[in-house]
Specification:
Layout: E1 15-21, H1 28-46, E2 48-54, H2 58-71, E3 78-82, E4 103-105, H3 121-127, E5 131-135, H4 149-159, E6 163-166, E7 174-175
Amino acid sequence: MEKNLHFVNREAKTKVVAFKGCLRIEHYTLFTKAIKSVVSRLIEEENAETFLFAINSSFDRCCLDAVTELKRHYPLIRRVCILPPQQMPQYDLNCYRLHDYDEIYNPYTEGKYGYGKSVNRSQIMIDKSDILVTYYADDYRLFKGARLGAKMAINYALKKNKKVVNIYCEEFDILSPN
């Protein structure tokens, strides 16, 4: 039986996609279907090839599962884990599913983002990407006074003139930089 494989267009510049979203996903099944649809579209239309993941939420795990499933149809795509600033104890590595990634990247070993600098991992991911895929609703609130990392990431991406795709919006709204 022959697989139906799709390939990234090697002649065009490939794009890097970062994922950052709210921790709570209300409709997990619908979200999974939506993320696969968006990622497929980004691969086909934007020539997306590399996908960056922060490994700290169910949003990240769901996105990783969707991209991993799509890798069967798009074998050239790469899944890159961006490690958190703190060192992870060795016994915790299994819960992060590091074996599911094609590459592990620790930005904090470079001089630019050294441990002494207070650089947000989301900012690092956005700096290294062309497109931010997010899941953010304006009415989402953790608790009074909470800083919303997804909203901050969206604002930072728009400030850096990156394309932002918000999966929460009904028709996969694409925000353009101002």
